[in-house]
Design a protein that fits this description.
single chain, alpha+beta, Isoleucyl-tRNA Synthetase, domain 2, Rubrerythrin, domain 2, seven-stranded mixed beta sheet, six-stranded mixed beta sheet, 19 helices
Length: 661
């Protein structure tokens, strides 16, 4: 029997698909299905993670077509971003040239996979038509008061030299560079995502087609906390310090007040010896709550005290490196007996430890190295004694409200989204600063604000800020001199509405045609990695809510069903010196591993394919040897799609033999 000539057959049908426009989206059919995989960053080559992601989407799109649905299955490019800028500096290329070259290469690779993509719907976020409409969206959000500018301590990546959103700081490090993130005070643009905290939280319950773990991750990130604010009066000019707590029942166990290093009260002792050094160190190492939890608990004892609201007792005020100004009020009362962090702090600074909750009404409790954080009954607490924890909370809140020294309060862990980035290769922010100090939106008729082509990357810092002419302009209203905003938008803004643009990618006048959007939205099946649970997926939900009224958008959620596929994994190999090597360069001999030059290497764990670990397999090489169908068959058949798959030569060879039958 003649062997199957995959190269001839696949090429024949790929030409046919393109010539006959087989996958072009039809119009005016009622039974719609919008299938979308997270669009790729054009790094230059697709990897096996892409292959798995897009193959999964392709199977679903084809199945829906065959069962009579009108399917939208588009592809685009998340094309702005720092890697293009870094590559431009390293290779003496303009970021646009580098990006477009990579898009061309990756598009050919995706076509060789034989995917049922409607390429007529293709978009690229660095295309000026796309970012013109993004600038229109920014203008809308600015007019609604959702986009605003303020001075704030921000997360600063000292390697990439740009600001990071809280969500982009992973265990205290920059999500892309891996550098330890610092705090820096800058004027920044923000989007008021916190305005939608309740909606974003409550509507999670309606997302039945999402994995429970993703919904839980978003719920925890939004972080709704019910508690109260209590006013403590200090002995510095009777200045009031308002604390937030979720445990008002433990107020009789308070032995210190802790405030954030940038709390306004610190102005009252800013000249105290060593305080500025402490503040600088604390802010530098306080990027996120998760990083703070791992840092040593440090405090600066101020010369001031507060008076306990129910006792004639003074309580010392400390500045603590584990308190964040942007959470609650930036101040807490410390109850060491019932909070582990407070206990560690109290032991370090020899502060009083007063147990006020016990498992049993009649028994006291001894606190050694572990705080008591379980439920129980109140002790050593005057009018709260013998009450349950929950009843005590209610009674304290009622009392502070009746005495006018506090109130119940709900707060959120979620913070407004900082969207300013001090880089060149991003969407320009359509703002001008007039010489009289007024902030002016660039008129819609003058959009897009385009990036200058003659850019110099040799100087450190923001290339747009350093440009000799681009930032200097005139106000279109008055003719006054003005300076353009030199920050660009966070690239997560680009991906927060692209699914709407796919509905009508050639629409010139508006960001999207509302009739098309109301027909196609929400996306029926969205596919992508779980690593985007908090960043991209949360921002996309926010954008959909924020634009709903403006555009009369019917969909309140962007993605009806979400599937998070597993990783494609491969063994790793290292030299004795610890350098990663490509698996394809490794030869196995009698259970040991060597390079061609006989140098011994060591096999490590199987990990998600990564360029940095060099444990990658080039899809082009595999397609050339075995064909696209064999690759797609293996990537689907070897493991359940929500679990990691172990890449193996024997596995792809088995898939190839099956197709040859």
């Amino acid at each position: 029997m003649e062997s199957y000539n995959f190269s001839y057959v696949e090429k024949k049908w790929q030409i046919f698909f393109e010539k006959e426009k087989v996958f072009i989206t039809k119009k005016n059919l009622n039974k719609k299905f919008y299938c979308l995989e997270m669009f790729p960053y054009p790094s230059g080559n697709i990897h096996m993670g892409h292959v798995r992601n897009y193959t999964l989407g392709d199977v679903i799109a084809n199945f829906k077509r065959l069962t009579g649905y009108n399917v939208l299955h588009p592809m685009g490019w998340d094309a702005f971003g720092l890697p293009a800028e870094n590559a431009a500096m390293q290779n003496n290329l303009h970021p646009k040239d580098w990006t477009l070259k990579n898009i061309y290469s990756m598009k050919l690779q995706l076509k060789r996979l034989g995917l049922s993509i409607d390429w007529d719907k293709e978009i690229s976020t660095c295309d000026k038509l796309y970012y013109k409409h993004q600038q229109i969206l920014f203008s809308i959000l600015f007019k609604k008061g959702i986009a605003y500018k303020k001075k704030s301590y921000v997360n600063w990546d000292p390697i990439d030299k740009t600001v990071l959103a809280n969500e982009q700081v992973i265990e205290g490090k920059g999500w892309r560079s891996g550098a330890i993130v610092e705090k820096k005070e800058l004027n920044q643009w923000f989007l008021n995502i916190t305005k939608y905290s309740d909606q974003l939280l409550n509507s999670l319950d309606n997302l039945k087609g999402w994995p429970e773990k993703v919904r839980l991750m978003q719920k925890n990130w939004i972080g709704k906390s019910a508690g109260c604010e209590i006013d403590f009066i200090s002995d510095f000019k009777n200045t009031k310090i308002t604390i937030f707590t979720t445990r008002p029942d433990t107020i009789f166990g308070a032995s210190f007040i802790a405030i954030a290093p940038d709390h306004p009260f610190t102005e009252s002792f800013k000249n105290e010896k060593n305080f500025q050094d402490f503040k600088e160190l604390a802010l530098k190492n306080s990027a996120t709550e998760s990083s703070l939890s791992k840092n040593e608990k440090l405090g600066f004892k101020t010369p001031f005290f507060v008076l306990h609201p129910f006792l004639n007792k003074k309580i010392p005020i400390y500045v603590a490196n584990f308190i964040l100004m942007d959470y609650g009020t930036g101040a807490i009362f410390g109850c060491p007996a019932h909070d582990q962090r407070d206990l560690e702090f109290a032991k370090k600074y020899n502060l009083e430890i007063i147990p006020v909750v016990s498992a049993n009404k009649s028994k006291s409790i001894i606190i050694n190295n572990q705080a008591y954080t379980e439920d129980g009954y109140i002790i050593n607490s005057d009018f709260l004694n013998d009450l349950s924890v929950e009843d005590a909370k209610k009674k304290v809140i009622k009392k502070i409200e009746s005495e006018g020294i506090g109130n119940s309060k709900i707060i959120y862990r979620l913070k407004d989204w900082g969207i300013s980035r001090q880089r060149y290769w991003g969407c320009p922010i359509p703002i001008m600063y007039r010489e009289d100090g007024k902030i002016i939106l660039v008129p819609e008729k003058d959009l897009p604000v385009e990036l200058p082509k003659d850019i110099d990357f040799s100087k450190p810092g923001n290339p747009l800020e350093n440009h000799p002419t681009w930032k200097f302009t005139k106000c279109p209203e008055t003719g006054m001199k003005a300076i353009r905003e030199t920050d660009t938008l966070d690239t997560f803004v680009d991906s927060s509405w692209y699914f709407l643009r796919f509905c009508s990618p050639k629409e010139n006048e508006k960001p999207f045609d509302i009739n098309e959007a109301n027909y196609w939205m929400p996306v029926d099946q969205y596919i992508g990695g779980v690593e985007h649970a908090i960043l991209h997926l949360l921002y996309s939900r926010f954008f959909t809510l924020a634009l709903q009224d403006e555009f009369k958008l019917k969909a309140s959620e962007p993605f009806e069903n979400l599937f998070t596929q597993g990783m494609v994994c491969h063994p790793t190999f290292k030299t004795e010196e610890g350098k990663w090597v490509f698996p394809k360069d490794v030869i196995e001999k009698n259970g040991s591993y060597f390079l061609d030059n006989k140098q011994k290497v060591f096999k490590g764990d199987s990990q998600a394919m990564s360029k940095s670990k060099k444990n990658i397999v080039d899809p082009d090489d595999i397609i050339r040897i075995y064909g696209a169908d064999a690759v797609r068959w293996f990537i689907l058949s070897d493991s359940p799609p929500d679990r990691d798959i172990q890449w193996s030569d024997s596995g792809i060879q088995g898939a190839f033999k099956y197709i040859q039958k």
